[in-house]
Amino acid sequence: MVDVPELVAQAREGRPRAVARLISLVEGASPQLREVMAALAPLTGGAYVVGLTGSPGVGKSTSTSALVSAYRRAGRRVGVLAVDPSSPFSGGALLGDRVRMADHASDPGVYIRSMATRGHLGGLAWAAPQAIRVLDAAGCDVILVETVGVGQSEVEIASQADTSVVLLAPGMGDGIQAAKAGILEIGDVYVVNKADRDGADATARELGHMLGLGEARAPGDWRPPIVKTVAARGEGTDEVVEALEKHRAWMDEHGELTARRARRAAREVETIAVTALRERIADLRGDVRLEALAARVAAGALDPYAAADDLVAGVTGPEQAPRHGA
Amino acid sequence: MVDVPELVAQAREGRPRAVARLISLVEGASPQLREVMAALAPLTGGAYVVGLTGSPGVGKSTSTSALVSAYRRAGRRVGVLAVDPSSPFSGGALLGDRVRMADHASDPGVYIRSMATRGHLGGLAWAAPQAIRVLDAAGCDVILVETVGVGQSEVEIASQADTSVVLLAPGMGDGIQAAKAGILEIGDVYVVNKADRDGADATARELGHMLGLGEARAPGDWRPPIVKTVAARGEGTDEVVEALEKHRAWMDEHGELTARRARRAAREVETIAVTALRERIADLRGDVRLEALAARVAAGALDPYAAADDLVAGVTGPEQAPRHGA
User: Fold this and answer.
1) How far apart are the first and last CA of chain A?
2) What is the rounded distance in angstroms from the CA atom of residue B27 to the CA atom of residue B126?
3) A-chain residue closest to B308, CA distance
4) A33 and B272: CB-CB below 8 Å?
5) Of A11-20, A132-141, B139-148, B150-159, which range is least confident?
6) Which entry of A110, B114, B286, B304 is 20 to 30 Å from A68 by CA?
7) Who among A149, A261, A276 is closest to B324 (CB)?
8) Does residue A100 sit in helix, strand or coil?
9) Residues of B with CB below 8 A from A185's CB?
10) Phi and psi at residue B22, in whole multiples of 5°?
11) B57/A172 Cβ within 8 A
12) Could you please report the per-residue DSSP string of B190-203?
């Protein structure tokens, strides 16, 4: 058994191993998960959580790394949660991409953690907030959450940050593609990276048009800025940080930070509850109930709703028949 | 109330309105959902379900459209389920992209349906299999499921098809990006589209290398083919169909089709059961329980697991405390 209070104390002192250990306990749904969570809860709320999302190839890792450098120059402790798909094929490839991050590997003021998108019980929606909690409680001033894929789960995670940054690049991941990926409307700050390439101005213009930035807004509404960067050379990074700080100040002023965090907590609690219920269903795999039901469904002998009724009854008792479509 | 048996009979005659109505009933979790599902179950299993996935911009819509044409030439009835992110910003943009599909709009042998990725109770994982069921029962010989985003949910849907096609294009969405998106290992057939562009051969080579196609495999193992296409001109489409048919024959020969469909049904049933349980939790929003819990969690006064316990108890009764991390 781990000495949780000791581990938490070490994490708050900035010891990376303690942070790593806590995240592992949390990710792995260890027997001490609840003890860890109870210990962390009163220590959270200090970190500013920034989500970074965008199509593959727009330069998210590079931008994240540039932001880490900028925040470090300002003396902030920084946590990075890189939500990566884990794939037998990509392991090596990803390492190359993480090389820039290696600049920060020896900096005790930076904690970097990669998280696999799959193989997890409740998926990203469950695991990411828990890891953020650990980094928050460990005393990070800023937590950058970088999601690699562009999909429903990834957009959801990015949109649960205090501030969401959407990255685009000229040519690839241009406006229409970003819109297709559904990420356009979640941005509080937009970054057109690789701005030294042809088409950067056009991409920024098109984006401004799609966002309706030219249209009138109610006074006090947040108008998302579009910042052009060349992250590989650190150009524009200070402007991104400035935009983030402005958004944070705007949220403070309008009570939006509290509101967002309450929404995030609601989703977190709901996801944990659903995961707990899902686990009970998974336990039914043990007694081959699901397997037998699935074979009948696949053969057309049973419809999936009737089969699901059986599973739900196994979890909650038959008196709690589902009201789905009733 | 809808006359479900009549609607199902009309759908099987190929009347697009009846199919649309059934999908709407299914998507909207209508009160007649269960009746619809029970009516459809014995009619399913005839369709060959092909998933198409790939990074934004590789030409998925164009490739899907070319496949529709090819299957139509062979006299097959085709269903298309395009899983699109619904976004207030993208509505117009997407239409442009769907123009090619309009070629098929007046063809009674083709049924095209778009599905939004968000706003759904149980998300894509819940809704997509139900829509596939309707298309299957309506007598489609082939169902093409095209996912727009590249993320956890989208990859999961694509990987649940009978055969999964992964699309790439030279330059954008090259090997490393596809690997990052986690889609590389799910393909049964790989397509390098836009093969008239520079770098197509390099992309195909790199892909073959990443997939380890040069390595020895056990006899009888499926070796995913890499097909080069220029979908906009219909080039290579026949070769894709041929590859699909080969994969289907291989699955038949090795019992893989039955196995995959049983796995798909298991996941479908599990998702419906979890969704039913999730709905009960959502009902608790009504009595502001979740909201009050979330505010305490956001303030650090309560940890999210303790809060989730409360929710779960509200759904299943307190005697069924969650065993999460217990």
Assistant:
1) 47
2) 9
3) A273
4) no
5) B150-159
6) B304
7) A276
8) helix
9) 87-89
10) -65, -45
11) yes
12) EEE--TTSTTHHHH
Q: Is A211 on the interface with B (CB under 8 A)?
A: yes
Assess contact for B311 and A19: CB atoms under 8 A: no
Closest chain A residue to the Cα of B181, Cα to Cα = A149
CATH top-level class for A45-253? alpha beta
| Cα A213 from Cα A217, distance rounded (Å) | 9
Q: Looking at beta carbons, which residues of chain A come within 8 Å of B307?
A: 265, 269, 272
Q: Is the pLDDT reported for residue B95 higher than 80?
A: no
Could you tell me which of A43, A269, A122, A22 has the C-alpha nearest to residue B306?
A269
ipTM given for this complex? 0.75
Sign of the C-alpha dihedral, residues A229, A234, A235, A241?
positive
The answer to whether the CB of B76 falls within 8 A of the CB of B165 is: no
CB pairs under 8 A between A and B: 366
Beta bridge partners of A50: A144, A163
* Maximum alpha-carbon separation in chain B: 65
Cα A7 off chain centre by: 24
How many residues belong to chain A?
326
What residues in B contact A117, CB-CB < 8 Å?
151-152, 182
Q: Is A223 helix (H, G, I), strand (E, B) or coil?
A: coil
Cα B186 from Cα B207, distance rounded (Å): 13
Whose structure tokens read 């196995």? B259
User: Among residues 269-288 of chain A, which lie with CB inside 8 Å of chain B?
Assistant: 269-270, 272-282
The CATH number of B44-254, from 3.40.50.300, 3.40.50.10840, 3.20.20.370, 3.60.70.12, is: 3.40.50.300
- Taking the CA atoms of A156, A250, A56 and A234 in sequence, report the sign of the dihedral they define: negative
Q: Nearest by CB to A89, which of B30, B185, B311?
A: B185
The sheet with strand A189-192 has its strands ordered as: A110-116, A78-84, A142-147, A48-53, A163-168, A189-192, A226-228
Six token digits for residue B46: 């005839």
A37-56 per-position pLDDT tens digit: 899 999 999 999 999 988 77
A319 neighbourhood in chain B, CB within 8 Å = none
* Residues written for chain B: 326
Beta bridge partners of B142: B48, B78
Domain residue spans of chain B: 1-43, 44-254
pLDDT digits (tens, 9 = 90+) for A109-154: 888 887 765 544 445 667 788 889 999 999 999 999 988 666 666 6
SS3 state of residue A224: coil
Residue B281 — φ and ψ, nearest 5°?
-65, -40
